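Worked Example 4.2. Read the sequence first, then its structure tokens.
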Amino acid sequence: MARSTGQKRQATQADIDSDEASRRTRRKVAEEATHNKRRTRSSDQSLSSASAKKTPSPTTPPSARKKIVKKGIARPVKKVAKSNITTPSSRNAKPAAKTAPRRRSFSKVAISNGGNLNDGKASNDDEEEDSPDGPSYWLMKAEPDSRIEKGKDVKFSIDDLKEASEPEAWDGVRNAAARNNMRSMLQGDMAFFYHSNCKTPGIVGTMEVVREHSVDESAFDKEHPYYDEKSTRDKPKWCVVHVQFRSKFNDPVTLKELQKYAKPGGILEDMQTLKMSRLSVSKVSKKEWDFIHTLTDPDANGAPTLKSATNS
């Protein structure tokens, strides 16, 4: 009995050991299967993410798409310049006709207000009235009464111009807008002589531009009333034109008389010297030039007598 009982116990222990080995084997197989399953899943995820990076989805924000392009995953789309695009209408379009060049190109007139210059524009009417082949017209101011500057008298009147034996250089202009107008003058242009800074300012006669602009030498003279240390011979700032007497009016066309025709709707409404009183050299339209001549009778040495106008 004792032996048989021992044999039964030994058999039971062997069964336990066999069951334990079987469990270990099953656990090892299960762990290997789980590991392989995880490795397969991670591989699938990496492949899907790589394909997503290569082709941005429509919902991908623009900023993300730019980053993808920078990394070289996707090529940027080349932009085609508009000028290189040929359309049927552009192929059949005719080239614009070339217009004949004007005789001159006038500079923009600037308004001088207490020394501060602002760009201004000449009226379109004035440009249309000027003939490309005829002269242009101007108004130039000078002081007829004595005024001493640096020990020199700066007066210059229509009589001084009339008595000159040769063309006079119109010097001393130190306003950029007036200088630019002088640079636009051509030989044969006509100008009104205007007496300014006097008891009765107004237009007193006419003169002709006989020599186009050149360097104003007075700007280099330290003794001259209008010396400018910023103007050098290497880079001169100022210029002169040479003018010659043509006529003196028997009766000046005063500033007050000009202003009567400068009201809204008046023929001198847009006259630059009335709009820009501080500008010493200004543009005059052909219409204004002709009308002002009707307001006075030049003397025998000047232009033909024209009929006086009434303010109607």
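Now turn to a second chain, presented in exactly the same format:
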Amino acid sequence: MHPQTLFFQILPILGITQGSFIKPPSSPEEFTLLDFDSLPTSHGLAPLPGPYNHLTFSTAFNVFFPESPSLADRISPHDLNCATSPPNALLGSRTAKDDIASFTINTTSTSTSPSHLRPYFTLHKSNIKPLDAPPPGTEMHVRGTSVDGKVLEWSVTFPAGYSLPLEVRMEEFSGEKWERLGKVEMWAEFGYDALDWEFCVDDLEVEFTSGDGLDEGDGVDGGSEVDWKKGLR
């Protein structure tokens, strides 16, 4: 018997599978489903803590509980499905200063995590929809900026009236893998003047990569926060 064959026959006895043994231990993938359900809300609405699961959310995002009695006059019964995994979801819109809702990698959080996470993430999917009954031609946009400066963009036009949440599988829908991201922006708009429209998000599936040290081109220096506003709208 070949020594290598004997070696792989012994592995299961030791409780080690070939896959777990061969896969480099310095770069395992860590998938995280962000459902925001553990976050408390006051009267159905609250800002997000920072960081939240190694991401920092801008003030244009708030966590909200669609079925809260406090929001009965603001949230339509047709929008209770914003929380695709109840009870909570995110509510997004531009701020008074016209800032777009966004979330960025928190490099301080990743660098101090037990897994020594890399300072970037992959966005796999999310559930999105505009609130209320938007006018015809209302669009939702998603834009990702990688730590290498690459910009990815995807958008969808929703029909007029109330809609169901759309599960957006980023790679399948856009034709590109949304990886090595430092920032993701989301917004909804309508009309020739691209007026702001509120939207909701839930069940963000992101992937982090762990490993000691930095890959070449990771785009950060010493774990400091990246200036994602530079050169962006």
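Notes for the reader: Helices lie at 3-10, 18-22, 107-111, 170-174. The two ends are 64 Å apart (CA to CA).
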